[in-house]
Amino acid sequence: QKEVEQNSGPLSVPEGAIASLNCTYSDRGSQSFFWYRQYSGKSPELIMFIYSNGDKEDGRFTAQLNKASQYVSLLIRDSQPSDSATYLCARADSWGKLQFGAGTQVVVTP
Amino acid sequence: DADVTQTPRNRITKTGKRIMLECSQTKGHDRMYWYRQDPGLGLRLIYYSFDVKDINKGEISDGYSVSRQAQAKFSLSLESAIPNQTALYFCATSDWSSTGELFFGEGSRLTVL
């Protein structure tokens, strides 16, 4: 079982709709979680990090963490064509090293 | 200029050749990492270093070696490249006192023929 699991997609989302991305993790001791966006051939860039149960909002992005169920999600509201990218979920281990999921490809269609 | 710089950005080489990928950073971070990215597999950790005297293997270190020449420099070597090492390689840094966020270089695309 991989430490961090994501659906590979592609997730097709109409422009203006909400994109919902999910990520599950196996280590119940995980404390911090990160969402990165990566455009094709480019380096990942941080969207959000979250370490407390509940929701964290930043602009059009909302991260949700449920430690009891061991999942973390990312919602993208009012999806734009520029949101088309691969979204990487990551967890920090006890040493602070990040372990990444395989990523979910999002395609926003006009 | 980028805070985390990788050279070369693209390299094509032949099986058996020795290759070095270099990474330098101006962020003043103690921690540096080398990741490899293959389609459908996400980012996998090759080696990491928490300070100049600290080197640790990641999940896929076989066939690779590293050198931490200074706080700002961390090099990845392939002693004898093989085709399945064809991938996109990323160097990253982080600050031990922060949230753990990684800051990535622009990537080095390596093709081994």
Write up what this structure looks like.
The complex is a heterodimer of chains A (110) and B (113). By secondary structure, chain A is an all-beta fold. In chain A, the strands form two sheets. In chain A, strands 2, 4, 5, 9, 10 and 11 form a six-stranded mixed sheet that branches. Chain A has a five-stranded antiparallel sheet with strand order 1-3-8-7-6, with no helix packed on it. In chain A, a hairpin with a 4-residue loop joins strand 7 and strand 8. Chain A is globular and about 40 Å long. Chain B is mainly beta. In chain B, strands 2, 4, 5, 6, 9, 10 and 11 form a seven-stranded mixed sheet that branches. A four-stranded antiparallel sheet of chain B has the order 1-3-8-7, with no helix packed on it. The radius of gyration of chain B is 13 Å and the shape is globular. The mean pLDDT of chain B is 94. Chains A and B meet through strand 5, strand 9 and strand 10 of A and strand 4, strand 5 and strand 9 of B.
Number of DSSP-assigned strands of chain B: 11
Strand percent estimate of chain A? over 45%
Structural class of chain B: mainly beta
Helix content of chain A: under 10%
The CA-CA distance between the termini of chain A, in Å, is 37 Å
Gyration radius from CA atoms of chain B, angstroms: 13 Å
| Mean pLDDT across all amino acids of chain A | 93
Poorly predicted runs of chain A: none
Number of strands of chain A: 11
Query: Regions of chain B with pLDDT < 50 over 5+ consecutive residues?
Result: none
Assembly form of the protein? heterodimer
